Input
Amino acid sequence: MATEEARLLMLVDDEPAQARVIASLATREGWRALTVDNCEDALQMLGSEEGQGIDTILLDGRVPGENACDFIGRIKAKRPEVAVLMLTASTSPLLAVEAMRAGANDYLVKPVAPERLAVALKSATRLAAARDELQPLSEKLPSILEFDAMVGSDATFRTAIAKAATAARGHGHVLVEGESGTGKEMLLGAIQHASGRSKAETRRINCEGLPHNTLESLLFGHEKGAFAGAFDRQEGALAACDGGTLVLDGIDTLAAEIQDRLAEVLETAVVRPTGAAHGFRIDVRVLAASNRPLVALAEHGRFSQALCDTLSATRIVLPPLRERAGDIPALTRYFLSEIGGLEGMKRHSIADSGLSLLEAYDWPGNVRQLQTVLFRACVHEQREALTAHSFPHLNELLGDADRGESKARGLGVLLYENDGNIRALEDIEADIIRLAIGHYRGKMTEVARRLGIGRSTLYRKLHELGIDNAA
Output
């Protein structure tokens, strides 16, 4: 087996140029790459002495030999512990579903960005998989939401959303902070979409994992001959977004020299490409995301104070999911609805045992991890309702101890029993009435009005269903 220090990747790809690029990127991430150009050679390699050390396989879906999903099935039958990543030119969710049902751990679309490949390889290792397979499947679902459509009633979360909606109407730079997976990318997308610059040029750059020289050229541009390998002039994103918006993910990972240079550009509104004799004026709005608090980093000398001050004019902090656990039921229903609308997927509900399990977990990967876990459960669950058994890895992590009734009782109405069958209409009706009484704090006139029934009818139902109106 490959160790964490000596991870071995087998690339199954018959395009030499693409294979060289991916192998180089993998090497940069600490992997040793083997390349074969067809499925039969891949299976032979997998069964060889050297192949016993293969930890992950990256498969181009167009590689000759056989159907890619059938080949994934053969790999999993031979070596079930090996992670499989599928590479394809198609963005069809149906292919993603088919690949995952065949056993793929993740699904990448060509051309693969270096940072996307890095995340996929990291997630494919056993160390990451043991934490619950945090593959970033969010790209399979719509990425831009209106502020009002963002799910969650937690007070801290709603305050952050309200602040973002206000910021969207302004022109200043915006900083969104929060742990990985809390929804920073979603919020930045919503701010840009609702801003007065939404029709202008927008570029998004993930700063994490990009080499210094690459990132410097991406941001500021360079002139021909500015450095070894600069065979052509390259326009930087700051210049390209003149009059528009530059979105910077992972800004806390920027090298110190780039931080200082970016701070100067934002202060003077003048950008000078590397190797250029003169700069030129620009009007760019920066929307930045950070996994770590920039103020704390700046106080300890690990981030440019000038850049922190510039970006923090509007600072929004998204809470981790463990601090807004009451939103898990609503988020679950939202994601199940979105997943059910994807090509190749069917609609699922969730039973109380499944919801109790989701609520018991502390979600280190936050909302993105919840979405991924639900996506994977929907791919593999044949029954309509997801139960605790639909989340085997969470069961393994948390154990089979009785977690009691779901904390979501009163926050939503469950339609299915644990066995997947529809609950009795009388029980559903009773839950709706209890929910309404709690929601409107026992104001029975308001409860009756919102339910569309008379007060006398409401009191009759309370008696028939055995509901205490103080519930």
Summary: The chain has 20 helices and 16 strands. The longest helix spans residues 366-380. Residues 252 and 290 are 5 Å apart (CA to CA). The chain has a mean pLDDT of 83.
